[in-house]
Design goal:
CATH architecture of the largest domain: Orthogonal Bundle
Strand order of the largest sheet: 7-6-8-5-9
Number of domains: 3
Strand content: 5-15%
Distance between the termini: 34 Å
CATH superfamily of the largest domain: MetI-like
Number of helices: 23
Helix content: 55-70%
Number of strands: 10
Structural class: alpha/beta
CATH class of the largest domain: Mainly Alpha
């Protein structure tokens, strides 16, 4: 990446972190499901009640993303569960012969992490089916599922791969269903409701269990451990903000399962914002009245999401143009080198976008940086390839004629070759821009913001209107970007070439 590209990305990082320049706030993250967001809101508002500035980075993704962000000083704390820590995060740290979870606190402290809790409820994994299916088949326990391999299983993607999830369950219960799918946790409930699925994984405090009249199958072999809710925090962060830690400790034992389920229901079923649910809990439990600004009007929120989205797309595309066009020129001049360059950028394009974002987090942390770099890398292939193809498609006779006239090689490139190749180069830039508009929505999963925020919030809350708040502007933005480059093509491509390409 050349200096101009680096400066473009650095400018965005400076702008996005300007709010942190005057003293660092207490940074709380949450996973991409409602209960984690609610608990994080409670933790943030409780921290603010001490007079300490705090902010919430909501719905960042899965367990590993937040754990790594905590260890890398990208977060100061986040809600977690003891079963997840014992079976997934710290599985290799369990002392030989130990039982239960008493060893967790020491293992966390060795990694510079403290724990507050338990908060008062055990949100264990469970399997659930619709009541009509349970009654028809006489299914009451997980063991009963062995007799019905024809049932369609649909599990959250994290549950499918976690050591304490489907692999463990399948082995302990000797389950061998014919149809097992991985999908978003919240979409699985829709699959049960429509009859597309028969069995899914549940969190025991999910409000959909009562709403959809589901039967929770008894874990008759005791496979699932306890998942007591706790708050994790960095020990060095707590030393600089002891009042926050003292406030968090007031939450120990104060949230029982019924209260948590009720708060989840307020958000997911009654459509009450998480910040309001958290504020109501603190008012009822501790008599606190957290000061918070009213949420912005929806149109203002959409403008804010769109502005951040444009920054992500614009700066990553600018950096890609500054790098990819010279690479395309090199690939056209030196054919063997060109094949290698095209192969490398082609391989990058085959990496799934979400995986590429996750790969970037250990290097760049959470926020806009991993999204910008991932979008930059995805933009390279169409621009490099089209620049290479446009230059290679120029007749050698034209170059020979220009050289015979005494034009130096640099002048031939700028006055003849690049103008002739400009339609293809612009087509590559246009393709990269449109692809970036769609891919940038995934940036919301790593805290980069943009139009992915309302989309993923809408999926989590099963709110079609919220999904449309992100999807419609993203689609409109893609069309506007395409139209913009059509105008650019008309203004900079030589008229003869433009007419010939129309």
């Amino acid at each position: 990446m050349d200096k101009a590209a680096s400066l473009a990305i650095a400018l965005f990082l400076v702008l996005s972190s300007a709010a942190d320049a005057h003293g660092r706030p207490w940074r709380v993250g949450s996973k991409a499901f409602t209960e984690s967001v609610v608990l994080a809101e409670i933790a943030v508002q409780l921290a603010r009640s001490t007079g300490h500035e705090a902010n919430h980075r909501p719905a960042l993704g899965g367990t590993r993303l937040l754990w790594d962000a905590l260890l890398n000083d990208e977060l100061d704390g986040y809600p977690e569960y003891t079963g997840t820590l014992a079976e997934e995060v710290l599985a290799g740290a369990r002392p030989a012969g130990s039982t239960g979870q008493d060893w967790l606190a020491a293992a966390l402290e060795a990694r510079g992490v403290g724990v507050v809790g338990p908060l008062g409820f055990n949100n264990t994994y469970a399997l659930g089916v619709k009541r009509a299916v349970a009654q028809r088949l006489g299914v009451r326990t997980i063991s009963d599922l062995r007799a019905h391999p024809e049932l369609r299983f649909g599990f959250s993607s994290e549950f499918m791969s976690r050591a304490d999830g489907w692999p463990l369950l399948r082995a302990r219960y000797a389950l061998a269903p014919a149809d097992v799918k991985g999908l978003d946790h919240d979409l699985a409930y829709r699959g049960l409701a429509t009859g597309a699925l028969d069995v899914t994984d549940l969190y025991s405090t999910d409000p959909e269990i009562q709403r959809d009249d589901l039967v929770v199958l008894r874990d008759d072999r005791g496979v699932f451990p306890r998942y007591d809710a706790v708050l994790l925090y960095r020990l060095d962060s707590a030393r600089s903000a002891p009042a926050v830690l003292a406030a968090w400790r007031r939450l120990r034992g104060r949230i029982d399962a019924a209260t948590m389920a009720a708060m989840n229901a307020q958000v997911k079923i009654d459509r009450v914002p998480e910040r309001d649910v958290g504020a109501a809990f603190l008012r009822a439990t501790f008599g606190l009245a957290p000061a918070s600004a009213p949420p912005p009007a929806r149109w203002r929120a959409v403008l804010r999401f769109t502005g951040r989205h444009l920054l992500l797309v614009g700066l990553s595309l600018l950096a890609a143009i500054l790098v990819a066009v010279p690479l395309g020129i090199l690939a056209a001049r030196w054919r063997r080198l060109g094949q290698g360059l095209l192969a490398v950028v082609g391989i990058v394009q085959t990496i799934p976008s979400l995986a590429l974002l996750v790969f970037m987090i250990p290097l760049l942390g959470i926020g806009p940086a991993p999204a910008l770099v991932a979008l930059f890398l995805y933009s390279l292939l169409p621009i490099v390839r089209n620049t290479h193809a446009g230059l290679c498609g120029i007749s050698p006779a034209l170059r020979e004629s220009a050289a015979a006239l005494g034009l130096p090689r640099g002048a031939i490139l700028h006055r003849i070759e690049l103008p002739l190749a400009s339609p293809l180069i612009l087509a590559g830039i246009k393709s990269a821009a449109v692809i970036n508009v769609g891919t940038a929505t995934l940036g919301a999963l790593v805290g980069a913001g943009g139009l992915g925020e309302p989309i993923f919030a809408g999926i989590r809350l099963d709110d079609l209107a919220l999904i449309m708040e992100g999807a419609i502007p993203a689609s409109a933005l893609a069309l506007l970007v395409q139209g913009f480059f059509e105008l650019v093509e008309r203004s900079i491509v030589p008229k003869g070439l433009r007419l010939r390409s129309d």
